[in-house]
Amino acid sequence: MKISTKGRYGTRVMLELANHWGKGPIQLKEIAKNQQLSLYYIEHLIAPLVAAGLVKTARGSSGGIWLAKPPREIKVSELITLFEGSTAPVECVNDPGICGRSDFCVTRDIWADVKKAVDEVLESVTLQELVEKQKLKTQSDSLMYQI
User: Fold this and answer.
1) Residue 98, domain CATH
2) Which of 10, 11, 66, 86 has the most CB atoms lying inside 10 A of its own CB?
3) Would you say residue 147 lies in a domain?
């Protein structure tokens, strides 16, 4: 499975919102700057996030975007499914009827196991955990060692 820019950037936008949790709305241009992403691209990611109930928006000078629920309640699996669809590496995992060999295909079993493993990883990680991991990475990157 290969995650597209839509999935990667959408996850980064949500991570930025999670980092901003509890501080009120954040403007898209600030997200674009902080994440080094195109504002135009980010604008296209917002509609599916709003439709899924993951973010809320407000217009105006004090408006912006914010998470609709706490970062600990949003799993990465929700984001990848929203932006990418199924994590199945081949179509027959989701729809065995498209192939007459599905009932006895050993390789289909491998692809089903791959999907299950990917889903388990994505389901096990919340935005809150990503926020905490990012803080640790940022702290370790800023440490300077001198001899």
Assistant:
1) 1.10.10.10
2) 10
3) no
Q: In the Cβ-directed half-sphere of 122, how many Cα atoms lie within 13 Å?
A: 23
- The pLDDT tens digits of the residues spanning 77-115 come to 999 999 999 999 999 898 888 888 888 899 999 999 999
Number of structural domains, the chain?
1
Q: Is 69 domain-assigned?
A: yes
Taking the alpha carbons at both ends of the chain, their separation in whole angstroms is: 44
Residues facing residue 20 across a β-bridge: none
Does 129 reside within a domain?
yes
pLDDT of residue 31: 95
Give the relative orientation of helices 39-51 and 76-84 as an angle to the nearest 10 degrees. 110
Long-range contacts from 38-45, C-beta under 8 angstroms, 24+ separation: 41/5, 41/9, 42/9, 42/13, 45/6, 45/9, 45/10, 45/13, 45/83
Give residue 136's domain range.
5-142
pLDDT in tens, 19-74: 999 999 999 999 999 999 999 999 999 999 999 999 999 988 888 999 999 999 99
Task: Give the global pTM.
Answer: 0.87
Whether residue 1 is predicted with pLDDT greater than 80 in this model: the reply is no
